[in-house]
Amino acid sequence: MNGRSWFKLHSFAGFAFGLLMLLVCLTGTLAVVSHEIQYLSDQKYRALSERQGPVPWQVLEQNLAKAYRDYQISNLNVPEQWYLAGAVSLHKGPEFKFVYFDPASGALTGEGPWGTVSRFLRNIHMYLSLGSTGKIIVTSLSFLLLIILISSFYVYRQWWLKGFQLPRGAKASSRTFWSDWHKWTGVWCWGFILLMFLTGLWYFTEHFLLKFKVEHYPKAPKLEQAITHKALSLTELMQAAQKARPELDIRALNYPLSDQAPVVVTGQDDTLLVRDRANRIYLHPVTADVLKIQKGGELKPVAYISDMADPLHFGNFAGLGVKLLYFVFGLGFSFLVAGGLWMHWLRTKRQQPELMRWLGWTGAVSSVIVVMALVLTSVQFSQRDADNLPLSPVLGALR
Predict the structure, then answer these.
(1) For residue range 239-264, what is the model confidence (pLDDT) as tens digits?
(2) Is the Cα dihedral 162, 167, 170, 173 positive or negative?
(3) Residue closest to 77 by CA, chosen among 275, 252, 274, 311
(4) What pLDDT is recorded for position 384?
């Protein structure tokens, strides 16, 4: 292939579904800092102080029992970032609410509904609110990223010499201006886009591993006999989990939704770049006996990749600095996509094309998907599908 052919391939990969890719890039960029956006919007999302040790689970449970006597805990989680409040999912029959708390003291900071800014952004970014079809559409964009990454080497010769030279001298309305900035931004964002391609390719692969039930992740144990009583209190279960793994920083707990499922406690140890679920303690809901311990550092490669993908994709494996770095690179990626669309328009506008002719069938399909995703997410993101009620004790019945 000659340079012109590579340029055409690069342009096609960037423009064909450019509007859809722009939506995914922008929502993903904002999703990286979605919890920080919530932090700025309402004090209930803010921790009161930095946590120095384990969460005081007993104090938290007592505070919940006083304020929400008729409710049951479904699950809870503590964020990686110290400045963010933890969240507890509470049920009372079909009624659901989030209750937020300070992880350092166990004090309650407020409550809210299912629909949040972070959920809106992640629902669009992950699957366009189109279920498994949307997941396939989004993750399939990773193949276009691969074409863009490879073709960029042939489109922008000697890029390594020009990364430190800021573009200058062209008017902002000219195609040269946009082309120079497009290339310069591409040089600096190439590694980030490669990371998005690799994690996106994994999400695509993982979807079909799950769909066709290909075993790739350790299975959770099942209870030998169905439980006939409510599970133990949060305090008792957390004490048992901490005793089983004293070094684990416990971050989350999920009560079972069926009578043969265990309680799942997750958290972080010194394993690098894995989400909380990599470290699991499975407990019997009624006796708190340890049924199984899963350690992130002992996972097989495919399972390890599964738990590493999210932290690498969203940058939530460290503090605010890393998230802001991801946010900046995400903006750069979004600028690349938007700039590519704009350059395509500048290149073709002299022909005065009709909108549909300019978009082409791929652009038209992309536009329809974008509109559908925005409308469906706006309608659905605050609606929660009814689950089975958790087999947890009613808070007011605790002693």
Answers:
(1) 999 999 999 999 999 999 999 999 99
(2) positive
(3) 252
(4) 82
Distance of CA 184 to the CA centre of its chain: 28
Would you state the structure tokens that stand for residue 187, as one six-digit string?
């040089």
pLDDT confidence band for 173 (50 / 70 / 90): low
Measured between alpha carbons, how far is 264 from 284 in angstroms, rounded to an integer? Answer: 9
Flag whether pLDDT at 356 surpasses 80: no
pTM of the model: 0.94
Burial 90-115 (b: 16+ CB within 10 A, else e): bbeeeebebbbbbbbbbbbbeeeeeb
Instruction: Let me know: does 94 contact 100? Beta carbons within 8 Å.
Output: no
DSSP 3-state assignment of 50?
A: coil
For residue 111, what is the enclosing H or E element?
A: strand 108-112
115: left (phi over 0), alpha (psi -120 to 50) or beta: beta
In the numeric block, the tokens 């992309």 are attached to: 366
Beta-bridge partner residues of 86: 101
46 secondary structure, DSSP code = B
Length of the chain: 399
Q: Using alpha carbons, select from 254, 245, 246, 244 the residue that is nearest to residue 277.
A: 254
- Sequence spans of domains, the chain: 3-36+120-214+334-380
Q: Which two tokens stand for residue 7?
A: 């340029």
Tell me if 112 sits within 8 A of 46, measured CB to CB: no
